Amino acid sequence: MPLPNDSLVSFWRSEFDSSPGCFVCSGVFVGDGLILTVKHAFEDAANGVLWARPHSNATQAMPLRQSPHTDPLLKHPELDAALVRVEAMPLHARAATIDFGGNMNALGPDVTLNGYFRGHHERPLPLRVVQFDAALRHHETEPKHPEGYSGAGVANGDRLWGISYAHYTDGNVARGCVLSIDQLMAGWLEAHLRSREAPSYDIPAREEEIRQLIGQADVEGARRRLMDLIDSFLHEPGMKEAKIRVTSLSARQRLLNQQIDALRDARDRLEATMRFTMEIVDGLLALLNEVVESLSRRLQPGAA
């Protein structure tokens, strides 16, 4: 199986124009409101506003405005990768399941490239990861990736194993270039995904340990154990999912409120236009009545 289509995203220079010239690159949802893609595409378009179109709802273009206060881009400090933040997860979109293993020898037979070519979603392209170039710090694949596939997801089965970011321009070298998730994790991706698992605690035993530390007047030790205990609750999968869901729903509520305000403004403008139009129509009707009455008087027998 390839990556789920609903995890894929395309980036554009226009909110509405879907012509190939407006297409920028591909991306993959890796978390709630987090899209993994390539850094160079955004550096090339640093002076403009880009738009993300989730595959799950391609008509819902999401603006990515870059400013000193609202930069949506989280760049990798060294490699050509970036995370793009959007305010809310689109309806029906989902994050891809991540394959954290970077060992190319452990890849299964079903390795595919999943993304967009000139803005059109393509069928998954079968790939073979052939070697790791330590000097250039990327994996090489066969065949060469089509131009414009930057940011496309490389899947190991239905799990995201890496992203395409370049291909060799030499026509004699039919190779593509991939960064594995494993390369991006340390010190960067995991900090944004917050994917670490909660420690496993025996709650009653930990409570007894805290009581003993308090009895021994070890306030600092008791405080540390208590913070660990609280941290375990906060990182329980259910708590994490609930927090993510609340954040996403809050963002969607803000977007909905903005849309409602825009509709109200449009309604008020329409009503004002209708009132103005009716005033003009009433004035024209009154003038027409005067003209008709004047003509009627003139046509009556004996009229001067």
Question: Would you mind describing this structure in some detail?
Answer:
By secondary structure, the chain is an alpha+beta fold. Among the domains are: 5-85, Beta Barrel (Thrombin, subunit H); 103-191, Thrombin, subunit H; 203-234. It is 36% helix and 24% strand. It is built from five helices and 17 strands. The strands form three sheets. Strands 8, 9, 12, 13, 14, 15, 16 and 17 form an eight-stranded mixed beta sheet that branches. A seven-stranded antiparallel beta sheet has the order 5-4-1-2-3-7-6, with no helix packed on it. Strands 10-11 form a two-stranded antiparallel ribbon. Helix 3 (203-215) packs antiparallel against helix 4. The termini are far apart.
| Strand percentage | 15-25%
Radius of gyration: 30 Å
Please name the CATH topology of one domain.
Thrombin, subunit H
What is the quaternary state of this protein?
A: single chain
CATH superfamily of one domain: Trypsin-like serine proteases
Structural class: alpha+beta
Detail the poorly predicted runs. Answer: 195-201
Would you count the extended β strands for me?
17
CATH level 1 name of one domain:
Mainly Beta
Alpha carbon gap, first and last residue = 95 Å
| Secondary structure tally, helices | 5
- The H/E string reads EEEHEEEEEEEEEEEEEEHHHH
| CATH architecture annotation name of one domain | Beta Barrel
In round numbers, the mean pLDDT is 81
Percentage of residues assigned to helices: 25-40%
Shape: flat
Main beta-sheet annotation: 8 strands, mixed
